[in-house]
Amino acid sequence: MLVIETQQLSKRYGSIRALDGIDLHVPAGSIYGFLGPNGAGKTTAMRILVGLLRPSTGRASVLGMDAIRESTTIRKRVGYQSGDVRLYEWMTGRRLLAFVDAARGGGSQQEAERLRARFDLNLDRRIRDYSRGMKQKLGLIAALMHRPELLILDEPTTALDPLVQQTLYDELRAAADQGRTVLFSSHTLSEVELLCDRVAIIRSGKIIEDNHIETLRRRAVRRVSFRLRTGSAAELQFPERCILQSTQDGMVSLSWTGEIQPLLRWMAGMDLQDASIGPPDLEDLFTAYYRT
Asked: Which of 29, 127, 177, 206 is buried most, with the most CB atoms less than 10 Å from its CB?
């Protein structure tokens, strides 16, 4: 079952195309990463999904409902946090959560208190006195506390310290284990690789990759180095999948793309003194996607 589905979704601001015909398919119970550099279109897409923006063309479906015509119903079942958290500065944190809970019909006080303890947030201070990280934590509690079927989080780890980030990751994993769905945007590869089942990469308003993390890992680059006991690097026949980086003081350094078994078979035919094979590095792969 698809919780989010878009078809040729576009958004224009005059001559500027913030979104350019994206197709997004987010299955139920998944943690789905929406990855891209700043200005790529992530926030625009998310605002359309929760009914805060209207698309120029195309359509978007959330929880089986039209994201524009049925946006009021959708928002009752979705937890959303924007990338630029804006809160009522004159309220205390506790008053804000009570206000949000009442707007949704009530019943979330116990979960709000559990999350307050998890995120270690003082709710009795006025929001105007909160740091940026504290405001981010309050916004996350507001998005999570009614245990929504779908979480749409726009760069939720901004301004959070590493321990709080880990707490958030644990909460998102628990939500997915319960059959709920998470769509979160990021421009940080490490958290997407750590959390996500699948990732869509967006650049200049277009989705240029949409795949499982494990599939991307199989296409990622490994760093390989070895030293020959006998023979010369000049005599080696290098397979197509490798790119020779250097041969210095008898040490051969190369990069390898794809499955590891052909690499191991190739290296098994050499008389090696020493060898090192690094893990798949998605950084180079994603950097290539980000380049114009």
From this structure: 127
Q: Give the end-to-end CA distance of the chain in Å, rounded to a whole number.
A: 34
Contact, 74 vs 67, CB < 8 A? yes
Q: Average pLDDT over the chain, rounded to whole? A: 91
Kindly give the residue spans of alpha helices, DSSP state H, lying in 68-108: 71-76, 93-103
pTM of this structure: 0.83
The answer to whether residue 290 scores a pLDDT higher than 80 is: no
* Distance, CA of 198 to CA of 31 (rounded, Å): 7
Query: How sure is the predictor about 231, in pLDDT bands with cuts at 50, 70 and 90?
Result: confident
- What is the reported pLDDT for 96? 97
Both tokens of residue 8? Answer: 């040729």
Where do the DSSP E strands lie in the chain?
2-13, 16-22, 25-27, 31-35, 57-62, 65-66, 78-81, 150-154, 181-186, 198-203, 206-212, 221-228, 242-248, 251-257, 272-277
pLDDT digit string (tens) for 40-79? Answer: 899 999 999 999 999 999 999 999 999 999 999 999 999 9
In terms of domains, do 110 and 228 share one?
A: no
1 pLDDT more than 60: yes
Residue 251 has which token pair?
A: 């040490």
Which two three-digit tokens encode residue 261? 């078994």
Question: Domains in the chain: how many in total?
Answer: 2
CATH number for the domain harbouring residue 104: 3.40.50.300
What's the pLDDT at 291? 66
Statement to judge: residues 226 and 188 lie in one domain: no
Residue 264 belongs to domain with CATH number: 3.30.70
* Structural domain boundaries, residue 64: 2-216
- Write down the residue that tokens 């078809």 correspond to: 7
- Pick from 144, 138, 139, 27: nearest CA to 79: 144
Residue after which a domain boundary falls, among 216, 248, 274: 216
List 33's β-bridge partners, or say none: 184, 199
